[in-house]
Amino acid sequence: MSIKPSQIKFKDAHQYFRWLQLNSDINTHPDKLKAFFVSTNDLYSQCIGLEFLLMNGFMPEFEQLLERNRNSRSKVNREWAFIYDLFLMKQKRVRSKSQLLELVQHFNTEDAALQCTQLFLEIALYFDIFEYGILANRLEELIRKLYAVTDPILRPLFKQRMNMVLFHHYWKRNEMVLARKYGFDALVNMTNIRYLANLHINLSLSYIFEDFELANYHLDETIRIAKEHNLPRLITSVENNNRPFIYAHFNIPNQLDTPIKSVQAHLALARGDFSTAQRILSEVTEDTPFTKYYIGRAFQNRRILLQSYNEFIEQRSDHFFARL
Fold this sequence. Notes:
elongated; 0% strand
């Protein structure tokens, strides 16, 4: 006669996880662990649960457990709540990236696993503001901190995060064999739907110098995932930004349109309509390496194209898009 988990009093998440590994179908583990984490009274299991629920995309349960940690009597639990509150603010865009970066950089904890999470968040925020060179300085520290984490629930989740970090790192260094290795490792094992969809977007962009069909495949996968999981903002981003950018780059503008002026200019360039591109770009106020690239092409100005190249390299450490 099999024993049901409800008949056993588990001390903590580790004990329950070991029991699941021996007695339960692996496909049922996420939902069973979700139920455990939202009900457990073990303090450190409540901390581990934040990473598990976030990385598996169980957002209502994540926010429920986050509230418990915020109000915990334990200092360690409140520390975990602070960092995961920042993850939530980043996702919901309720604070600027610079504000979040300042908060995460001034945070201190003795908890080895939380130090890893803190560093993952810091790196993600630097990526968001296009400072890709940061990882070259922090990679050794991150690897050292990860070696200190032995928790059997956290380790595979941190490996997912590390694969995403290394994909971005090698992509921006234009080391595409390594970038794809870590990108596809992340793709196969990713459990968070939002992260998975965004990974498909970045993989689509990684093919712009090689293969339109593969770039388009990853765009279509993003749209499929976004429709299945009701992520309208992601669909809008792909159709207004990523798809027209990629199609224009391959000189397949079709009948695509977008409200984004700089991308409108890129589509005009793909159609060979330089005068329209010049007119549109005269209305663009943002100053980025991408807009300089469009302006350089529209006015056939090699000096501005060189400025674009230098800004990609020197300001962003982005050796991939410098190839434009």
